Amino acid sequence: MSILEATAVELSVPPVDQVLDLHGDPAHHDLALFMHGNQWMAMDALLREFQAANPQVRSIYYETLPPGILVQQLRRGTLLMGELIIRVVPDVLTAGVEMLEELVEEGRVRRYDPYASNRLAILVRRGNPQAIAEWADLVRPGVRIALPDPETEGIGRLVREAVTGTLGADAWVELAERKVERGSALWTRIHHRETPLNLLAGRVDAGPVWLTEALYQVRLGMPLDLVHLPERQGRRGRYGAAVLAGSSPHPEAAQAFVDFLRGPQGQDVLADYGFEGPGDQ
Question: For 223-273, how does the pLDDT look when each residue is reduced to its tens digit (9 = 90+)?
Fold first, then answer.
């Protein structure tokens, strides 16, 4: 337990006012990380290993929001959560390579370094009572689904691409519009980690997630099952890490963290949570 944790006044009433994706002190830190949201479960282990190798980096603030939100926050400079205002200049941003390419074009980052990749999967309730095996099963009448939002989540874009590429554009319209209108599909509001909660609460029967999220839920012993998609129906997300060009307040610590992510220690931690390397096919 840190000195701050021992002396601070704690006021949190889950799930009413619990903020799961903001960690640390936004005002005083040695390193600020905007991390791709699907890596939330690996952060404790990553930072423990990183700080053991870099003891001079004592205080780390990090966010694990969806990358679309992180990029908006970077561009606008402020995150507003209710009446809470967060103004943090990140040292490192990790996101899908497509988003990072846009930031290179904008001049916000000079370069990015690929460090991990991930696959799509479907998460279902234990025993898979709806016999979900592929995208076509999500379109069936009576199957209730949770969908990640393509506007903010990289996985949402890949799911849309995969469904459209496998079944055609009308299948996506069925999932994303008609089922929503009928009340048999819902969008995640912030983060695709809401999908397991919706499954556990009985609100949905299935939901596309990152493979790492499904593996983690199974690892926790939750009454959920993982459905591997047929190879031809899958898609891969590829992630890069970038030091913010000219704006990073802690450039040495930032570069040390990027090097750590790409090095053997960081790669071992990510692999333990189901992430694959940047060059894996």
Answer: 999 999 999 999 999 999 999 988 889 999 999 999 999 999 999 999 999
Burial (CB count <10 Å: 0-12, 13-18, 19+), residue 62: buried
Residue 252: inside a domain? yes
pLDDT above 90 coverage of the chain, percent: 82
Q: Is the peptide bond before 278 cis (omega within 30 degrees of 0)?
A: no
Torsion angle of the four alpha carbons 8, 13, 14, 19, in this order, in degrees rounded to the nearest 10: -50
Residue that has been written with the tokens 């949201």 in this structure:
37
CATH of the domain at 195: 3.40.190.10
3 has pLDDT over 60: no
pLDDT band, very low/low/confident/very high, at 12 (cuts 50, 70, 90): low
User: Burial level of 175, CB count in 10 A (0-12/13-18/19+)?
Assistant: buried
8 A C-beta contact, residue 189 and residue 81 = no
Handedness of CA 45, 46, 48, 53 (dihedral sign): positive
Together in a domain, 37 and 101: yes
The contacts found for 125-131 with CB under 8 angstroms, 24 or more apart, are 125/199, 125/202, 125/205, 125/223, 125/224, 125/225, 126/223, 126/224, 126/225, 127/225, 128/225, 128/227, 129/205, 130/205, 130/206
